[in-house]
Amino acid sequence: MPVAPDRSADQQTAEVADCIFELIGRIVGQAEQVAHRLSIPAPFIKVLHTLDCPMAMKELGKRLHCDPSFVTLIADMLEKRGLARREPHAADRRVKNIVLTSEGEALKQRVEAEITARMPWNRALNESERAQLLALIRKMLSAGHDCEADAGASAKEALHGLFTSALQDSVAQDANPANSPAAAGR
Q1: Average pLDDT, integer, range 165-185
Q2: Which terminus of the chain is less hemmed in, N or C, by CB atoms within 10 Å?
């Protein structure tokens, strides 16, 4: 006779998943509010956070889990807004680095400060609790390597779709200044 699964363990697993999804939703919501207030596409927050300058565009693509053509779109948008420029790599001129301009660096610092101040672990947890949380997250991430091959492609496609949609919205908004947040305040 098979043993029935422990109901409390199943219930706890469901509650953990619910809480994690709610936390992620809140974090994304906070990031979207910051992006809206700063009049930048929400994906720029991830790009600015990820971008250690100078960085090869190929490396940025790896860190963002997106293909080279999409990194080109990101670089184009950053350049158009005066936040970054492309430069040849010092050792290999075939490689293009993306480098934040002084405006890009200032925006990155501002975004990082605002996001950091809004994150729940900085508001609700003390230093010891944050260290425990970080250790637990790292433990879960290291255990997730077994599932990455299966989930990697769909996660990459979803992220690409999110970035593409937000950047296309930004391009459309730039093309029609009457729809910009600055114009809305007039």
Answers
A1: 51
A2: N
